[in-house]
Specification:
The structure is a single chain. Helix content is 24%, strand content 23%. The strands form 2 sheets. A 6-stranded mixed β-sheet has the order 4-3-2-1-11-12. A 6-stranded mixed β-sheet has the order 5-6-7-8-10-9, with helices on one face. It is an alpha/beta fold. It has a single domain, classed as Metallo-dependent phosphatases (Purple Acid Phosphatase, chain A, domain 2, 4-Layer Sandwich). The protein contains 6 helices and 12 strands.
């Protein structure tokens, strides 16, 4: 172990402009109040609800994010391809075909003198059939083992099926500090520490306006559910955003001593106080 990496947070999918602004408004205070050594944010919906751009990535980095992860909307914005190629702090899923897709799926980041390994991986159940996520994560864990090369390891499992996310948690147990799910945009109530010391939550939830249908204005999703007809594109909801994520404290082995949900601002924070 190189040094004690004490506390970090992960925040779920940021959906659109209003919710980027919520990150800008709340994150600087949270970093100080919680004594965070690092912050990782899933930003795959940051640009108009779909994908990433240079300006949206810059806005989140300037607000206090150290690393951004993506998901199935990684390449939805044409200009986002260049950002994914050139920005080392921006990760797309590691199980895209190796050598054929721009960007990186994992990175070892020096943050405040600590080595933080971040792995972004894409599920396959009810999702696009990318390469095996378990093989891909195994490769990245072996490249920078916890307690040897990495002071802390965070795995963002971007997946639809809760069972697949749960399986990834146990697959990484004892080898990662945190395995956390994204993509579903709804925070789950199962934050816990697994038997061998890995913190786990099935879905972190979104950083978004919860007066919506998973971050989108309700009219178009309702039309599609009730009529099976498309009337336009999905548009991000623009109300007050809630920041949803998890707070993790680690021990000298880089494993978790504590995991707590974070919910700040907007509707959900009225029910669940900040850590």
């Amino acid at each position: 172990m190189l040094r004690l990496f004490n506390a970090f947070s992960f925040f779920g999918d940021v959906v659109g402009r209003a919710d980027r602004h919520a990150v800008v408004r709340h994150l600087p205070r949270l970093r100080g109040d919680l004594g965070l050594d690092a912050v990782v944010i899933n930003a795959e919906n940051a640009a108009g609800g779909f994908g990433i751009t240079q300006s949206t990535a810059d806005e989140l980095f300037e607000a206090g994010a150290d690393v951004l992860t993506l998901g199935n909307h990684s390449f939805d914005q044409a200009q986002g391809i260049r950002v994914i190629e050139n920005e080392p702090r921006l990760l797309r899923p590691c199980n895209y075909p190796q050598g054929q897709v721009p960007g990186r799926g994992a990175g070892l980041f020096n943050v405040k003198g600590y080595n933080l390994l971040v792995i972004n991986v894409h599920g396959r159940v009810f999702m696009d059939a990318l390469d095996d996520p378990f093989v891909a994560v195994e490769r990245e864990l072996n490249a920078a083992p916890l307690g040897d090369v990495a002071d802390a390891v965070l795995v963002d499992m971007h997946a639809e099926a809760t069972s697949e996310k749960n399986a990834m948690g146990y697959f990484c147990d004892g080898r990662a500090s945190l395995v956390v799910g994204t993509h579903q945009h709804v925070p789950t109530a199962d934050a816990r520490i697994l038997p061998d010391g890995t913190a786990y939550q099935t879905d972190a939830g979104m950083c978004g306006d919860y007066n919506s249908i998973i971050g989108m204005q309700t009219e178009e999703p309702l039309r599609r559910f009730t009529t099976r007809m498309r009337g336009g594109r999905f548009e991000p909801a623009t109300g007050d955003g809630t920041l949803c994520g998890v707070f993790v404290q680690t021990n000298a082995r880089g494993l978790a001593d504590r995991i707590e949900p974070i919910r700040v601002g907007g509707q959900l924070a009225k029910q669940v106080p900040v850590v």
